[in-house]
Design goal:
The protein is α/β, with parallel strands linked by helices. The protein has 9 helices and 14 strands. The longest helix is centred in the last third of the chain and has 20 residues.
Length: about 325
């Protein structure tokens, strides 16, 4: 059995060029062997830039290539499920960008296709592979924060380009799909539980129709809560705060942690407001995209189950669905 996998990349998405392709090219267990775009010239340019041997002018041609072992799917959100299912039909496991689908119904359809194919499919929440999140969960388990009852998350950026897929409502654009999903995913990870109900406020762009500002509240078992705000039209901001009965933990760069610089967790035991109980917990440089690629490749090569499978992806989509329903109904909704 080969000890590396040959990846095929669908499309020339910004996240692929900026982070995922370089991470795969430097990973232990894989290399990008082909890239496809509906614009063959764009695929050719990307292939030349990253030293990729093959390029295709259609997704289907890449999927049919017998020399490709696994697929990375960073296409616009509405193509996540259909193209991932097509890949499975060609015998290819898939690492698919978040959100895995446009709703939980679609996610379940994908799970059925994955089960029938018997091949790995994972939602690409790279943050699950960064040690700062594993350390945060370990601190909770150790009792350093006491009982963690509340998580507050902010994730925003400013983007008003009408041509960007994030600003196109008909293909799954908007803040909740793009970045709010991280707030939900990481809260579920830290609480190790699923939300019981959700309520949301959404403000939509009058031209794009996408949610450009969404705030949500998710109620978890034992009275625990996630409160978050996400936006596609506010200043660039990321922050997560965990509030416990004996201390708080702040993650200053929770989602786009730099690959070549240390990250820090700020713990405070709450003895005063002047930082008297403050402690910095340093985490060495880690490329979370590389860790994600190797974790997926390991599952493909070994045949062992993924640490986080499509059941987790469906649960995240159910929470997102509830928030969209709440924004429309003005009421609490159950996932």
């Amino acid at each position: 059995m080969t000890r590396t996998i040959r990846w095929g990349v669908l499309g020339c998405a910004g996240i692929a060029a900026k982070a995922v392709i370089p991470a795969i090219q430097s990973s232990r267990l894989g290399r990008v062997a082909a890239i496809a775009s509906r614009d063959a010239a764009k695929a050719k340019e990307m292939a030349a830039r990253f030293g990729i041997a093959k390029f295709y002018g259609s997704y289907e041609d890449l999927l049919a290539d017998p020399e490709i072992d696994a697929i990375y799917n960073p296409l616009p959100n509405h193509l996540h499920v259909p193209m991932t299912i097509k890949a499975l039909e060609q015998g290819k496991p898939v690492l698919c960008e978040k959100p895995i689908a446009l709703d939980a119904v679609q996610a379940r359809e994908l799970a059925a296709a994955q089960k029938a194919a018997g091949l790995p499919v994972a939602e690409a929440f790279m943050v699950r592979h960064h040690p700062q999140w594993k350390k945060a969960r370990a601190l909770i388990a150790e009792g350093r924060l006491g009982e963690v009852r509340a998580i507050q998350t902010i994730f925003s950026y400013y983007l008003d380009d009408p041509g960007n897929v994030r600003n196109q409502a008909d293909i799954g654009g908007g803040g909740l799909f793009d970045v709010g999903c991280y707030a939900i995913n990481t809260a579920r990870f830290l609480f190790d539980a699923e939300p019981l109900r959700a309520i949301a406020l959404m403000e939509r762009d009058p031209v794009f129709g996408t949610d450009r500002l969404t705030s949500g509240l998710l109620a978890f078992p034992e009275g625990k809560q996630l409160a978050f705000t996400c936006s596609t039209q506010l200043s660039l901001t990321q922050k997560v705060t965990l509030l416990g009965t004996r201390g708080r933990l702040e993650i200053p760069i929770p989602f786009n942690a730099p690959a070549d610089e240390p990250t820090v967790l700020n713990f405070d035991d709450g003895r005063d407001l002047a930082g008297g109980g403050r402690e910095e917990i340093m985490i060495g440089p880690v490329d979370q995209y590389r860790e994600q690629a190797d974790a997926f490749a390991e599952a493909v090569l070994s045949g062992k189950p993924l640490e986080t499978g499509l059941g987790d992806a469906i649960a995240n989509m159910k929470a997102i669905d509830a928030l969209f329903r709440s924004a429309a109904s003005g009421r609490w909704e159950e996932p």
